[in-house]
What does this fold into?
Amino acid sequence: MSAYVARQPILNINEETIGFELLFRDSLNNSFPHIDPNEATSKIITQNQLILGLEQICQNKLAFVNFHELSLLNKTPTALNKDTTVIEILEDVTVTDDLVAVCKELFEEGYKLALDDHDFNEKWEVLYPYTEIIKVDISQLNIIQISKFSRKLKATYPNIILLGERVETEHQLRMLKELGFTLFQGFFYAQPEMVEQTGLSTDKIKLLKLISLMANAEVTFDQVASIIEKEASISFALLRYISSTAFAAGKDVTTVKHALTYLGFEEIKKFVALIALANLGAHTNPELHNMAILRSKFCEFLEDLNNENGPVPRAYLTGLLSLISPIINIPIESIVPKLPIDKTMKIALLHRKGSLGLYLMICEAYEIGDWDVIASTAAKLGLDKDDIGRVYHEALLWQNEYLLKDKRERKKSK
It folds into this structure.
């Protein structure tokens, strides 16, 4: 599955690119599809930020992302890095006390807010104290209107930056500069450029189960973790979600439950909503997911054999993430450095080094029946290959039991 986004550069007065506006697309056809704007925002976040990060699409410059009313009220912008994101408030939102309160809170948290396609209506003035950028579509207004507004704005809010949209000629550019505009966007510089990357697929049944769980007031972290930790792509999205926020800054995550406790239930609900909205209709590769589930339990059992104090939880997550590259069709080297996991897990996933890396080598050897590698790797770990065979069998039994239970649940859902 591919994820599409169009980006259009935004330049400063020196014609240097300072960022890109990101525009949702559902195909290589470079036009906005017939889709709810809140869903479009969710898909931009889940299909781009949660996989490789908007910083790659925007070349480490600012990402201007459109947010409609519901997305703002749900505080969806907090899924993104406040230092590299500009929250564009769309022109057709309803200005309510709740919306103003959310904008004030985002502003106080350090997010940059922009008013998109500004029409100079007085209703927006209540948001000016929290606004960093006002975008003016010059194709919709005449020079007298723009001049009058810019003078009034600079007299009362001199720190607000004016951005001219739909700039198509050098004459328009000169005019805007004379009126105090310092940022510019339009065909004069570039049309929206299509960017395609592999999208993130998830399991529909598990998503529906997660949604129903989050609606239960008595839900526990253990219940949520029990679903997420058996779904590699959701686990991966959860880790990217955490790493793109301030919740786990400077901390390493070793288990799914560990990740969830950093977020708290309100943020978990937001995460589930983002994933569900963007991926309920997506397809998955069941064999890869099943193999990831087997690896996760096999690695856990191997750690139990190797560690006299019992299994270290990160062994399970390492096994689960070991197949994320073919699941989302992105090179492992592009994925692992962005995950908030400890160094031993990263080394294992990238280089098959350390005890966790050796567990993965044994998993891979069992999958192809390479008994020489199994024997030599077992020797490096100081493990008996017969014990390894026993726990592999136990992992298979566990996987089969899980898949049978999953199959029964699928039948019930039909």
Notes: Residues 26-34 have pLDDT under 50 and may be disordered. The first helix runs from residue 37 to 49.
